[in-house]
């Protein structure tokens, strides 16, 4: 796909619909572009689909770099004998298709099976972009899910995900939000979207203005590497923040992508600069086809030790593991406590001993 370049060499990208339509989805096209053997790519994409839009493709500097690893199929996806297909037990907590009710007061609503780029480490790798999720967002499925929400007053918070809900055209997204806002006990609406990172051109001024009407509305996005924080991504986040939408970020700890303290620190500080609050740093989910991305939990704890106290609390996410079988998110924190009694004895972020009198 061609794009215009200004005198300052800033790319002038086509509209997001054209970018999405021009995505690489064929293994042969990817092999031709990078001089790869197409056979392994075809084997992987026969099970797990491929999509890399031209914008995200442009962020790849060379094969094997952190952007490449997130987007390009790897034969190791077919060699995973450790991880189950449904790592979080979502199917067991789905009272109606397309809706997951795991926590009493909140629910997950899946409205599309499509993403702007199919991440190779995806939690829903078994479904996203495949026939397994083809019904997501259908009128019948949405009606059933919305009926369940209406009939369950304990639910105060709904997270819209998929796939990526911001890939819905305005003509489908805005009516969906309108219907949700009519459910009186739904206090909070959240959107989980990687679009500000993978296809920021989707965040138009028109979209931001439309979303502004549905407050309190929150968006959690997903940046994994500092190189994903581009001028285009910054502009998308600025538009959403200017519309009064609080932005959080959920990073996944990925081997060969961001599994060192320097990269994570740079990423978290960079996110604050574009008005995105680091929210979670996730230990990789046990999703089949992703075992080669997983890092030891000790590595994540060591990274947190390099963040806590060494950088602003605003730039320090919660390191967490989403427990298998739908048991929920578990915060993982470095252990500073040495003794708990009349005196609290602990070490600080510098390793220095400290005491605090414990009231009784």
UniProtKB/TrEMBL annotation:
**Keyword Isomerase annotated:** yes
The EC number(s) given in the record are 5.4.3.2
Q: What are the names of the required cofactors?
A: [4Fe-4S] cluster; pyridoxal 5'-phosphate
What Pfam families does the database record attribute to this sequence? LAM_C, Radical_SAM
According to the lineage, what is the superkingdom?
A: Bacteria
According to the UniProt record, list the residues that bear N6-(pyridoxal phosphate)lysine: 329
InterPro entries reported in the protein's UniProt record: Aldolase_TIM, LAM_C_dom, Lys_aminomutase/Glu_NH3_mut, rSAM, rSAM_sf
GO MF, one annotated term:
4 iron, 4 sulfur cluster binding
UniProt-annotated binding residues for [4Fe-4S] cluster? 115, 119, 122
This protein's record includes keyword DNA damage: no
For this UniProt record, the keywords arranged alphabetically read as follows: 4Fe-4S, Iron, Iron-sulfur, Isomerase, Metal-binding, Pyridoxal phosphate, S-adenosyl-L-methionine
Domain Radical SAM core stretches: 101-317
Q: Which NCBIfam families does the record associate with it? A: KamA family radical SAM protein
The record's comment on protein family reads: Belongs to the radical SAM superfamily. KamA family.
- From the Swiss-Prot or TrEMBL record, give the protein name: Lysine 2,3-aminomutase YodO family protein
């Amino acid at each position: 796909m061609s794009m215009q370049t200004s005198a300052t060499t800033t790319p002038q990208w086509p509209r997001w619909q054209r970018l999405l339509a021009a995505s690489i989805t064929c293994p042969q096209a990817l092999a031709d572009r990078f001089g790869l053997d197409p056979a392994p790519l075809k084997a992987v994409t026969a099970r797990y689909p491929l999509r890399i839009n031209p914008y995200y493709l442009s962020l790849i500097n060379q094969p094997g770099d952190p952007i490449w690893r997130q987007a390009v199929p790897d034969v190791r996806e077919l060699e995973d004998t450790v991880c189950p297909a449904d790592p979080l037990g979502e199917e067991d907590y789905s009272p109606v298709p397309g809706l997951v009710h795991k926590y009493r007061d909140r629910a997950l609503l899946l409205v599309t099976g499509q993403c702007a780029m199919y991440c190779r480490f995806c939690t829903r790798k078994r479904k996203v972009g495949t026939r397994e999720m083809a019904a997501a967002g259908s009128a019948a499925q949405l009606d059933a899910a919305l009926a369940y929400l209406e009939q369950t007053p304990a639910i105060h918070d709904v997270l819209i995900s998929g796939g990526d809900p911001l890939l819905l055209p305005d003509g489908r997204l805005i009516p969906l939000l309108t219907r949700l806002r009519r459910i009186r006990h739904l206090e909070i609406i959240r959107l989980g979207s990687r679009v500000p990172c993978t296809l920021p051109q989707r965040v138009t001024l028109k979209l931001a203005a439309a979303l502004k009407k549905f407050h309190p509305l929150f968006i959690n996005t997903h940046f994994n590497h500092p190189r994903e924080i581009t001028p285009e991504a910054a502009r998308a986040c600025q538009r959403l923040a200017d519309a009064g939408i609080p932005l959080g970020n959920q990073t996944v700890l990925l081997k060969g992508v961001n599994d060192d303290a320097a990269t994570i620190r740079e990423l978290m500080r960079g996110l604050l600069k574009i008005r995105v609050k680091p929210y979670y740093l996730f230990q990789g989910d046990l999703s089949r086809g992703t075992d080669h991305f997983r890092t030891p939990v000790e590595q994540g704890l060591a990274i947190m030790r390099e963040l806590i106290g060494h950088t602003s609390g605003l730039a320090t996410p919660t390191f967490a593991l989403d427990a298998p079988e739908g048991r929920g998110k578990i915060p993982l924190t470095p252990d500073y406590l040495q003794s708990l009694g009349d005196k609290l004895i602990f070490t600080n972020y510098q390793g220095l001993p400290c005491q605090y009198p414990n009231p009784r």
